[in-house]
């Protein structure tokens, strides 16, 4: 019997495809939602107009009293105390030479994605003080709506009512929710036992979702509130009223000499951002959602 690949597989060269299989991962949501991004290397001050004054009605030749004094405020971003997101990965030169893929590019893609995810989770989260870490979406002094039950369509309308009551532009509003809340809303039917779902896909919008005419950003980077039990969160936001100060977008540096005594290279990724709401009323937070 002849020796072939079936009985001497150990002697054959293993075929390795030079394709790196990547997992299915969430896309960045916050920066893609449309906030204003301002590039700055240092602290950023944004002057802010205060509350409205009260002009009055007067007769001809009557004295205009009292005088009004408009007030002003400011928003401070990116103080010197604001931390950066940083990460570093070392790899041996032997691994770099023997890898069947471009190892440095593969590591770079992986680390940059992880840094972007870290930023997204912070921007959409429940923590942050604006001093050392950016404030998360649910830390803003925005309007709040306590659902305290399973989320329903009436809750969404109540949130929209809060936005309209604060003179927020309804055409600029977007829903931000997890896939869990989104599917729960999609499952709502016109009647018990009916197969008619209340929310129907918009055939004119390929690959996009809308609820009550407003775009839906589905992201699982939203954080649940820990408690007994845990509860979910979602928001209705005018992202044009949110400003992002960007000192450094995820920046990659290949260090090919730093670890030379180990015969190693390294990839370092650094990013530094801050974020704040220009008008707090443009962020309506829905909390206490039963999950």
General description of the model:
The protein has a single domain (31-49, 65-290), classed as Major capsid protein gp5 (Major capsid protein gp5 fold, 2-Layer Sandwich). It has 291 residues and is an alpha/beta fold. It starts with 35 loop residues before the first strand and ends with a strand. It has helices spanning 93-98, 103-123, 153-165, 179-186; strands at residues 36-39, 44-49, 72-77, 85-92, 143-149, 173-177, 210-211, 214-218, 231-238, 242-255, 264-277, 283-290. The mean pLDDT is 89. 16% of the residues lie in helices and 30% in strands.
Topology:
Elements: E1 36-39, E2 44-49, E3 72-77, E4 85-92, H1 93-98, H2 103-123, E5 143-149, H3 153-165, E6 173-177, H4 179-186, E7 210-211, E8 214-218, E9 231-238, E10 242-255, E11 264-277, E12 283-290
Parallel strand pairs: 1-10, 5-12, 6-8
Antiparallel strand pairs: 2-3, 4-11, 6-9, 7-8, 9-12, 10-11
**What would you report as the Rg, rounded to the nearest angstrom?**
26 Å
Domain tally: 1
| CATH-defined architecture | 2-Layer Sandwich
The first-level CATH class name: Alpha Beta
CATH homologous superfamily classification: Major capsid protein gp5
**Helical content band:** 10-25%
Overall pLDDT metric: 89
Number of strands: 12
């Amino acid at each position: 019997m002849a020796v072939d690949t079936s009985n001497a597989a150990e002697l054959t060269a293993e075929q390795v495809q030079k394709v790196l299989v990547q997992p299915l991962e969430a896309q960045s949501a916050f920066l893609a939602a449309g906030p204003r991004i301002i590039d700055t290397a240092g602290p950023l001050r944004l002057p802010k107009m205060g509350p409205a004054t009260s002009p009055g009605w007067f007769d001809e030749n009557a004295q205009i009293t009292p005088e009004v004094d408009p007030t002003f405020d400011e928003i401070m971003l990116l103080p010197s105390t604001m931390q950066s997101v940083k990460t570093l990965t070392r790899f041996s030169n032997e691994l770099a030479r023997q890898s069947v893929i471009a190892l440095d590019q593969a590591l770079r893609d992986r680390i940059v994605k992880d840094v972007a995810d870290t930023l997204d989770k912070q921007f959409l989260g429940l923590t942050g003080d604006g001093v050392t870490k950016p404030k998360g979406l649910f830390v803003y002094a925005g309007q709040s709506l306590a659902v305290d039950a399973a989320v329903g369509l009436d809750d969404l309308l109540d949130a929209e009512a809060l936005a309209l009551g604060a003179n927020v532009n309804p055409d600029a509003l977007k829903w931000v929710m997890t896939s869990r809340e989104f599917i729960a809303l999609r499952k709502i039917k016109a009647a018990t036992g009916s197969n008619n779902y209340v929310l129907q896909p918009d055939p004119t919008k390929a690959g996009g979702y809308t609820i009550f005419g407003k775009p839906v950003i589905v992201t699982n980077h939203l954080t649940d509130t820990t408690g007994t039990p845990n509860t979910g969160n979602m928001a209705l936001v005018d992202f044009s009223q949110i400003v992002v100060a960007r000192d450094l977008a995820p920046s990659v540096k290949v260090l090919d000499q730093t670890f030379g005594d180990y015969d190693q290279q390294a990839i370092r990724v650094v990013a530094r951002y801050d974020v704040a709401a220009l008008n707090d009323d443009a962020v309506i937070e829905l909390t206490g959602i039963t999950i």
